[in-house]
Amino acid sequence: MTDRTRVGRLADQQIVDRAALYALLDGQILAHVALVVEGNPLIIPLAFARDGDSVLIHGSTGGGLLRLAAAGSGLGLSVTALDGLVYARSLFDSSMNYRSVVIYGVPTVVPPKEKERALLVLSERLMPGRSEEVRPMTRRELAATIVLCIPLTEVSMKTRSGAPSEAVDDGENHAVWAGVVPVVTGWGAPSASPLTAHGTEVPASVRRH
Predict the structure, then answer these.
(1) Number of domains, the chain
(2) Are the beta carbons of 1 and 104 closer than 8 angstroms?
(3) Whether residue 168 has pLDDT greater than 90
(4) Which of 60, 115, 156, 195 has the least C-beta neighbours within 10 A?
(5) Mean of the per-residue pLDDT values for the chain?
(6) Range of 59's domain?
(7) 5 falls within a domain
(8) CATH of the domain at 97
(9) For residue 209, is it within any domain?
(10) pLDDT score recorded for residue 5
(11) In angstroms, what CA-CA distances link 23 with 20, 76, 133, 182?
């Protein structure tokens, strides 16, 4: 743990369990990546995947943020799962249940010989089985894509769960409802693209959702 990964406020909500960290990362597919460019903060959303004790992100070789990160700029990557809205008997005490992690580090560029494997790791995380249904990646596509690897060395994970903070003698009106509204997410019905031949069967990788 470092000074910037140590939680100051509500330190009891900090999680240092590696299994909990992996579970959070493996349950999400969207991260926000931030770094400073010429004195100005820049944040972009990116798909990601955990690969062992690191995370992978990718994008176009023409993308400015990834080029800067590849050149050795330190970055921050955050992932958050919103689990519920916490309704207290005052707006001040209302909150959210969540699990979040911030990862700091200097990424390394995945070398050409390992790039296709890394992209398949990302693909399997986002669309399991899809790589077996479509054509292989071309050399041109591989050359146009950069993959960065960020080690899970400097991480800070924090969570909140459970009911709102309250007490029998807190002076609040207990006739007012208080509790938690869970967040439930899911996938909708697939919609075929305009050029998909009529009657084409929905493949297994799509039906998994």
Answers:
(1) 1
(2) no
(3) no
(4) 195
(5) 90
(6) 11-184
(7) no
(8) 2.30.110.10
(9) no
(10) 62
(11) 5, 20, 28, 19
Q: Going by DSSP bridges, is the β-strand pair 145-151/54-60 parallel, antiparallel, or unpaired?
A: antiparallel
Does a structural domain hold residue 120? yes
Return the structure tokens found at 180.
Answer: 């938690």
| Residue pointed to by tokens 């004195």 | 39
Q: Map residue 203 onto helix, strand or coil.
A: coil
Beta strand pairing call for 154-160 and 95-105: antiparallel
**How many DSSP H helices and E strands does the chain contain?**
5, 10
Query: What's the confidence (pLDDT) of residue 17?
Result: 80
What does the pLDDT look like over 29-86, one tens digit per residue?
Answer: 999 999 888 888 989 999 999 999 999 999 998 877 777 777 777 899 999 999 999 9
Contacts of 202 by beta carbon, 8 Å cutoff, 6+ apart:
190, 192
Q: From the centroid of its chain, how far is CA 27?
A: 8
Query: What is the pTM assigned to this prediction?
Result: 0.89
Classify residue 117: in a domain, yes or no.
Answer: yes
Q: Residue 131 to residues 98, 127, 135, 140, 205: CA-CA distances in angstroms? A: 32, 8, 8, 17, 9
- CA–chain centroid gap for 122, Å, is 12
Contact 59, 66 (CB under 8 A): yes
